[in-house]
Amino acid sequence: MVGVVKAFRPATVSELSQTISRPLGVLWLFTALLFFAALTAYYMKAERWPQITIAAVIMSQFLITLNWGDAKYGTILNFVIIAISIPAYGKMEFNNATLKEGSGLFENAEIENLKVHRPADFVSLPPAVQKWIKRSGSAVTSEIVTLRLKQQGKMRTKPDGSWMPFSAEQYFNVQDPGFVWTTRVQPMPLIYLHGRDQLKNGQGKMLIKLLSLFKVVDEKSNDRINSGTMIRYLSEICWFPSAAAKEYLHWEQIGKHTAQATIRVGDQKVSGTFSFSETGDFQSFEALRYRGGGKDAKQEPWLVEALDYREFNGTRIPSNCRVTWKLPDGDFTWLHLEITHLEYNVKHPYHSSETELSPTETYI
Question: Where is the chain membrane-spanning (predicted)?
Fold first, then answer.
């Protein structure tokens, strides 16, 4: 604003040695208004605040360059602002892409007039699986077509690595098996990673970006990624147990409390082993899974274990899980997760500004 005053009342601003013309004064005023608009948009949580801020910084730096002698120290402030705004812009673009993918996943899902399950719907399944369905409450609930959930927890990338906190959201289509999972991981202060895993039509994708801007991993549509994402989907039906009766799944009892499940989507097929407790709770899932999507990735035993249970919308599921690679040189537990929210038969993903919902929940 000093530049504006200097342009229109130069005698009142002796601190600035350079002359500022009235047209430049108008530009200074416009830039100040842009910064004010950006600040307002930020506090109102408007989605486009990073673009407004970046435009204001560009205009400001242009004017600083023209009046370098008097205004050069403003460059420091502009650098700080741009260092915040550009990652925020990347985050916005990443989130918008995730919302688009999530909306596409739900687009053709029919959630009206859903069938209410009866125990007779599951009689063709192995006894251990039937017992699990009954224990979960899914034998008498509405058919599950879609779901969305929120997670929190910690992960690490190597056995001796530090644990990194993460939060995540995930969307499932149960009719046409697929999911979108997006996460934010904080490896250190001021540094974060955004990741997105997807399964659609039997094809997998994995994308990880540093500060939402720089690609760290971008794997898609190869046999290793496709197999891995399908195995993940298969393991995660523990969160929507009634899917066990879907036509794309085949079950075979292999022990009193164990059953092998095979999922087929198009020309893709994977299998894994489910284990259940004496009372019928899901205990674990194990399968051979490619560790990574690169050409040198090898199949290793991959284990998901339930640590605690919780009821969401009438369905008892494993709410706390531990995920471990069973490697030749020892077990590598790389993920601990907790489900904090879950909702069945929804038509929309979470919005980036949406607050936590509060369904009826019970700790068990």
Answer: 24-43, 49-66, 73-90
